[in-house]
Each structure stands twice: as C-alpha cells, then as structure tokens.
Amino acid sequence: MNELEGKRILVTGGTGSLGQTLVRRLMSGEMGTPASVTVFSRDEAKQHYMRLDFLNRETATDDVIYENSRSLLKFHIGDVRDRSSLLTALRNADVVFHAAALKQVPSCEYFPYEAVLTNVGGAENVVKGIRENDLEVETVIGISTDKACKPINVMGMTKALQERVMLEANRDSKKTVYHCVRYGNVIASRGSIVPLFVEQVRNGQPVTVTMPEMTRFLLSLDRAVDTVFEAIRSKRRGCTYVPKVPAANITDVAKALIGDKGNEIVYTGIRPGEKIHEIMVSEEECFRTIEENGYYVILPVLPELREANEPPPALNGEYSSRDNNISIDDLKNLLADANTEIQRFIAGK
Q1: Which of 123, 213, 268, 331 could form a disulfide linkage to 162, CB 3.0–4.6 angstroms apart?
Q2: Domains of the chain: which residue ranges?
Q3: pLDDT tens-digit profile of 229-274?
Q4: d(CA 69, CA 54)
Q5: Which residues contact 137 (CB under 8 A, 6 or more apart)?
Q6: What are the phi and psi torsion angles at 110 (to 5°)?
Q7: 1-182, CATH topology level
Q8: Cα 138–141–144 angle (5° rounding)?
Q9: How would you classify the pairing of strands 289-292 and 8-12?
C-alpha cells in the first residue's frame, strides 16, 4: 500500500469535511509517506484552524505560518476558478485530489452560474493547467456525488459535467490518468441532515423531514476516503468508483436519533432541487459497470477509453437508495460507528 510514497500531493478544497479527513489519512502514511501534502483553498480562516489542529495547538499568532511552511503539510491560498493561481499549485504536484466545489443544493439553485464557475470551470482549469503546461501530474481524482447521476438540481448537473470534463481528459493525456469517485450523503459532514437532527432532538424540537418516502445513501467520511484510495490503486483509465454502502429511509434516521426522547417528526415538503431517492449508478450506466475489490466501477462512456474483454456487468438495473433500506437498529450502529459524538448522543451520554 505504498502508492503515494514520496509523492507530492495537492488537495483542492482541502479544508472541507472530506478534505480534512483525506489529509489526515494521507498524513498517517497508510498509502505511503508523501513528500508533501498541500491544501489548496480560498478560505484563510479555515486553513488557519486546520493548521492549528494538525499542530495540536488551540491558539497561535501569525508566525505559525512561517513555521508550518517547512513541514510536510502545506497550505496554499487560491481559488480553482483562477487558473493562474491553480497552476502555481499544480506545478508542484504528482497526485491531485480535486475536492473543491460548491456543494449545497439550495445555494447552487439560487446562484447557478456560480456553481458552473466552480464545479465545471474549476475542473476544466485543472485539466487545462496540466495539459497546456505539460505538467508531470500522474493521477487526478475528481470528487463527485450521487446527485450527479440523473441530476435534477444545479449542483448535480454541474457535478455531472465535472465528471465528464475530467474523464474525457484521458483521451489525449499521455502522462496523467483521471478518475472520479461518486458517493452519497456523508454522515456528520457540514450541512448534512444528521447534525441537524441531533440538534433538534437535543433541544426538544420537532425533527423536520421533507417527505416520508425520502431515502439516501449513508456513509462515513472514512468510507468516502476509502473509495478515493481505491481509485488511486486503479490500473484503469477514466473510471468512476462507487462504494457499496447502506441506504436508509430518512424518517428511520430521525427515529434512530430520537430513540425514546419523544420528539415529534414534522414533514415540511420537498425542497427545490431535492430528489426523493438518490441514484449512484443509473440504468444506462449499469451495463458498463463492473465490480472490483468490493466497489462498483463505472467504465468510461467513451468507447476508446475502455479495454477489450472487460468483465461482465455487475448490475442489471440502477443502484438506488430506494432499495434495500436498513433497519432502525442497524442505522443506530451505522451512525454510532461513523461519528463518536453521535455515538455518545445515541448512548444518552
């Protein structure tokens, strides 16, 4: 497991929930000890607190930036929309994890072109920066979402285009391999439903669910990173990696967190851009989806990127959160395993 030994790694959007977990796992050396890990993002405050966290310090003056510049973990202020800024960081990278995105569905609905600029334009800037400057980047992993599959909202539409921009780049790329990773709702990530439910239950408020039928795929941040690492190990080109994870009815998620506390569940109605069920592999994609090492691997849509004699399809229909929902007891275990704070909450501590 030394795929990243001695590699210079760039994580765009590295201050996000996934980015921070990914950086922690990279720094652990489980994929080999990298030469450097650079977090590229536009938020200096998040970078500052992330830097302190990795230095195990609660407070510090600005001089910590100078000290930290000589360490394995580095920070780079910049925006993926700005190609010249991004290029500066790409020049010093062997492996790129592209996690920068506008990901909140309502924000993207109200500001759709902003989502285009970041989610589509950012991916194009990564690709063009590498291609047009003949950079020595070996691998790029684009972080996508189940909302990119049969998208009905702006966030999903832009993420679907991000996937296509990155995967198509394999067609004329001699040095760089591009893959994508697609996964569902991350438990306890910023802006996700589980922390909201916990707060509502803790405060004795009604727990708000949009519709009784609503379902979602659920996974931990570490399971998401496992999927990213599976893509790194790949010997293929232009694939989309999808984890096999549980799906749950959101009402059952609420019940699992309420337990015996007696909070009322209130249905508020479906929101703009919201799906009732999420899909990770569509019925159109299932016929070019194989199974490897416990993951679904969607082979490239462009036939020139596929290999001869591929394994038979692993699916005969779409992979949807509508199907095979887990029980409330299993949900309690899943939520507790994913986050220690939720574990203590469910245990009543």
Answers
A1: 123
A2: 1-182
A3: 999 999 999 999 999 999 999 999 999 999 989 899 999 999 888 8
A4: 13
A5: 90, 93, 94, 95, 96, 130, 175, 176
A6: -80, -25
A7: Rossmann fold (3.40.50)
A8: 165
A9: unpaired
The DSSP-derived string for 85-106 is HHHHHHTT-SEEEE------HH
Residue 65 has pLDDT above 80, yes or no: no
The tokens for 209 are: 């669910």
pLDDT-based confidence at 69, cuts 50/70/90?
very low
Would you state the structure tokens that stand for residue 328, as one six-digit string?
């409330």
Alpha helices in the chain (DSSP H): 17-28, 44-54, 63-68, 83-90, 105-110, 112-115, 121-132, 154-168, 193-202, 221-233, 250-258, 328-338, 340-346
Active centre residues (catalytic): 147
> Whole-prediction pTM value?
0.92
Select from 62, 26, 27, 18 the least CA-distant residue to 44: 62
Q: Is 180:330 a contact under the CB 8 Å cutoff? A: no
